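Supplementary notes for students who missed Thursday's class. We covered one full example, reproduced here. Read the sequence, then the structure, then the short commentary at the end.
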Amino acid sequence: MIQVIFNDGQACQSGELWQWDYGQVLEITGLSLSRAEVHFCLDGRSSALIVPAQITDTGVIRADIPNKLLESGRGIKIYVYVADAASGETVRYAYLNVRARPKPEDYDAPADKNLLRQVMEALSMKADDLKLDDDGCLQLLAQNELIGTRVRLPSGGGREIELRNNGTAIQWRYTDSNEWTDLIRLDALKGDPGETPEFEIRDGHLIAIYQD
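Structure (token representation):
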């Protein structure tokens, strides 16, 4: 784990990152945010990877550092980003030092998780609704209360996204594509008694219907 501590706007790194590390977690303290993303950019590159952040009850922000960015031995720029349906704002910036080293012969890092896999892993067994915002963000709900982390789907250059229930899973696709992708299986969404409800898609929302 690597820590970045913000104090009076200044960022201080605690701990070391080495080339060929993997499974590393960034922990950010000193900010007061209710939601956030962390954008990771390899030094010298012009594009950044978006990683949803988890925020603890004590305000600590945690995000997985993409494994592939640690393979080059170059520093990593991080941008703490807050977005909603109307706006997006970079609120903090920091730089992570990465120390270069020889590649281990048996190096075999697991593949980085894409955004859909992160949404699926964030599901609670009590989740009963899924909201797709106008800006392409997914948010889980339980009895109309927000749970988990709000996740932005890949924009696809402004392409629209639609959802459907095929009877076994909630699926998504771009409206100009014929390929559907599973977002979450229906049997992973259960009510308090463990009963699996029926689901309908209404105006971009996943509606759970219990027979009782």
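Commentary. The two ends are 46 Å apart (CA to CA). Residues 163 and 172 are 5 Å apart (CA to CA). If anything here is unclear, bring it to office hours.
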